[in-house]
Automatic annotation (TrEMBL):
Keywords: ATP-binding, Nucleotide-binding, Transport
Annotated SUPFAM superfamilies: P-loop containing nucleoside triphosphate hydrolases
InterPro entries: AAA+_ATPase, ABC_ATPase_HisP-typ, ABC_transporter-like_ATP-bd, ABC_transporter-like_CS, MetN_ABC_transporter-like, P-loop_NTPase
Sample GO molecular function, one term: ABC-type amino acid transporter activity
Domain ABC transporter: 17-251
Recorded family membership: Belongs to the ABC transporter superfamily.
Protein name in UniProt: Amino acid ABC transporter ATP-binding protein
Highest taxon above the source species: Bacteria
UniProt KW Nucleotide-binding keyword: yes
Pfam families from the UniProt entry: ABC_tran
Amino acid sequence: MTASSSPDNSAKPQLVVEFAGVQKHFGDLHVLRDINLSVRQGEVLVICGPSGSGKSTLVRCVNGLEPIGAGRLTVLSRLLNGRFPDLRELRAEVGMVFQHFNLYPHLTVLGNITLAPMKVRGLSRAEAEGKAQALLERVGIPEKAKQHPAQLSGGQRQRVAIARALAMDPKIMLFDEPTSALDPEMIKEVLDVLTDLARDGMTMMVVTHEMGFARRVADRIALLDHGRIVEENDPERFFKTPRDERTKAFLSKIL
Ligand code: ADP
Ligand code: MG
């Protein structure tokens, strides 16, 4: 599609994720309650909230790791209702980085990053390795290509996991507490990579309790509590004039 064929989209970036009245249960547990939330192309949405409030479940729905119950969830123009249309294609376009890096221990850093681009995207080894090396440069560890995950620090492993997700040229990146398992001195190096990605215009949904990062980088912050979005606001208002008592209570605990 050429730019001129869609003049309306140029004014306002396109919605790439849209939850409309989404509900989800795990058995008797009502884990997502009437979620209405949208993310536009190039936006950074931070999701925070107490443990068990449904943050992971919410982001896992976006790449189809969890099916929704009632409501509508649209991701990159695909409607993800109970049945999954084309998960493989969706997951290639929606990258995800978890708290525990989930790298393949038996593969080198390069092997971890090149696997999916070769298998799913059909890149040649040389192309995939060239791209992987450029991504390692981007996340600041070009010298680690030949190492195995066990030889890396937690912060370095997480940066490999980010490079691995980026190797698929995702349109959206999901991060689920990417720094929660890291020692304090490694948190910054990972947040710096996320900050660069955001500045480069990546659309991101980030579950994190790093409120300094949220304040600097997020376009909007949503607070989940017992499966409900109790506050959604720009960072300025979220921190200075939260509307909901639960936001005040949450902030008073973590700030
Ligand atoms: P958060 O990421 O905010 O800590 P989660 O989305 O992981 O919250 O979990 C929300 C609730 O759903 C928790 O009570 C959790 O125990 C429950 N839960 C998460 N995944 C499952 C599952 N696969 N089966 C049953 N219950 C689950
Ligand atoms: Mg979680």
